[in-house]
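User: Can you fold this complex?
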Amino acid sequence: MILFVEYLHEMRGVMKEYLFKDIEKKWQEKWVSEKTFKAIDFHPTKPKYYVLYEFFNISGNLHMGHLKGTVPSDALARYKRFCGYNVLFPIGGDAFGLPAENAAIKSKIKPSKFVADGMQKVLSQSKMLGLSFDWDRTICTSDPEYYKWTQWIFLQLLKNGKAYKKTGHVNFCTGCQTILSNEDCRNGKCDRCGGIVIQKERAVWFLKMKEYSEKLLNNVDNIEMAEHLKDAQRNWIGKSEGMQITFNLQDENEKNVGKVDIFTTCIETIYGVTYVVLAPEHPLISQLREQIKNIKEVDKYIEQTAKRSEFDRLSDQKNKTGCVVEGVFAINPFTQKKVPVYIADFVLNNYGTGAVMAVPAHDQRDYEFAKKFNIPLVQVIQGICENCAVEKTQYLENNSTMLNSEEFTGLDVKTAKNLIIQKAEKIGCGTKKINYKMQDWPFNRQRYWGEPFPVVFCDKCGVVALEEKDLPLVLPEVDDYLPNAEGDSPLSKVKDWVNCKCPKCGADAYRETDTMPNWAGSSWYWLRYADPHNPNKLADYEKLKYWGSVDCYTGGTEHITRHVLYAFFWQNFLYEIGAVPNRNPFIRKMGSGLILDDQGKKMSKSSTNGVSPLEVIDKYGADATRLHLHFLGAYEDNVPWTYQGITGITSFLEKVWSLQDMVTNDNSISKNHIYVLNRLIKKISEDIEALRLNTAIAAFMSFIKQIKADGYITMKELQYFLILLNPLAPHITSEMYEIIFNKQITDESWPKYDEKYLLEDTINIPIQINGKLYKVITINRGASQDEVVEEIKNNNIDIKMEEVKKIIYVKDKIINIIK
RNA sequence: GCGGAUGUGGCGAAAUUGGCAAACGCACUAGACUUAGGAUCUAGCGGGCAACCUUGGGGGUUCAAGUCCCUUCAUCCGCACCA
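Assistant: Here's the predicted assembly.
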């Protein structure tokens, strides 16, 4: 065989050394300057494909976690381009809000400067990874051109009654000096700074997210995503079906003094109610001050509760506290019997109605509380439990018999439940009701670095929205932007900015001095990429229609119950006001695993255990870094970072490079390689589509092994191989393609495999005897049982056919001989 | 407490519908080439001298189980007094 390499050597001199630094730099510069990966709006022939990676949080350097998500999406984007798609693969920076501001404060640099520098830094670092972003679409949430539209969306929310300001009890982070949403709190601590979260009364902007619960659940159903992530979202939204029941309230003299609504999912236990509990913040308390005989004691308890941090309340679940409300009784609408009323902080004011009917015989929490306060219990459903309640799971599972429940006594609980519901509806004391755990979204922060609210407060006109033409309302540059101890926004000190004229009546007015949370800008950014520089609209409707929903969205699983739910909410809203053409923002969401350090701890920007990707790139090159990290484990799994094994990757790349020395001038696929090559095409296509880079890399290695053993690769085979490998290792393959084929690899298309070359004509088939492996023989594919048995005999395998009871033969798979 | 996952060599990990467990790589061992080897190449590499045994443990279904069912243990993650 004539080695093509001899010809090549004549043409271009001997094969050069693999100098990854020069090669990678060359291609990275070329891709940027030639705009190789520009997405074309309304491409005349190619179908669109939208790959999105969560944009960078501008609070530090690129870290390993970013590579975990960006590299597979980059591979997918490159693969889809080869497949003939017009790919949109954009990037940007999430630069407003607490993370960026806290990082800026820490490094003692003004947030605006910190963010501008940070943006440049992460963009240039992602260029060093060879990521194929469309750089012309880069956005940054703290850029006025961008946040103009964040403010615009807020205005639409306000105009459509989805935003309201209300004084309420909210999570307040003692570290960040600002209110937080429920989504920002973990175990009573701030998710950003780890500070203790307490409850504070404050005037807060809320977005009516709760109203969207059912639509969000619908989004969850319609997204392609790992089931456990969907569960996490459904769990967060927390739909539960039950009844809302009204209890009348009486004073000591049995005079009606009001009523209280309670929510229950266990109406079947209505005859077992022995007390009612209100949340300490429940408005009835202040309404009934005159009737409450121990109001001092009650006030004291309420005060105590307010002082307790959420963390204390949660860590003290076993030890229930409460206070009886003397002088007020609740009347069970089914029995007309009166039961005492308590307040206790285990009842949450923001769930259901903030009041519960307590059934100590059938609810463990009620049981513990009743025991502590010596409240009697009445068992109404059969079941055995010593020193505990007979709970729902038990009695429903056994469909137990009703007790002490008037006309329902003796029925099974499932039948009784339905009849009790009917009775409640008939006597008019209750209706079926669905409750959601998810709350409205507290949407302001008392911090400097965020989108200013486009509203003013006017003594005459109240809350007045700015006119759209006056957007963006630019955040003023100030010197003193640190949060203060009172938790007021730093903007309140900027008098000439705060004081303004009412856009409606022209009178003196003042601006909202809180800013929007960091989640605001990220709740719609994927839409902006469709039309990132449009000064007149958040994005042109036709362009939004063209680019459609994100086909594959990659990013961290920690955002599943926050960012992704906010994204659903805003997209639903924007769809309803006709601003966007789809209700579902994302078709498929892939949650990436974490990178762990050698202690098994998460490696992230905030921890000190991080290994910088730049350090690895510098030492081994971008292609090697990309391959190594993804060879360590599957995309959705957590993987421990290690340098161990990176030599396997570098020697693989050396072998790839040395294919130049083995290429023949044959422009067809050789017989020896036809099956392995076709299988490789299939494997790589499927693996990239599923973001399984680890097994794809293994397949490339196996292929190379075979090529090395055979000592040659044809031109055609090498061409295919380089295209297949390009999405994972773009630099080396681009360079080799140019050297050998004198063409640009990005102009090529993805090789197709032929079904008929996936299976070889002869196969190895294991022979089992009584289910145990005995020997492996080689037969023709599709051989019949008789032919296989014949072959076994020919192979001198010691089986006496008269002893054989049964033969189980799975064609082309296995033969099991039962003796 | 509720929900979810994971458990496979010395290590990272593979394994369509149940069908040859350990692909691919690291580490390790031996050999070759070398002045040299942290380079390269070749071979070996779950355990056991063997028959055989082996996917956290125990049980089951099946001709056949890492995969399905029951049970149990361990680790990790999410939610957490949600009425």
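The CA atoms of residues 478 and 494 of chain A lie 8 Å apart. Confidence is low (pLDDT under 50) at residues 1-13 of chain A.
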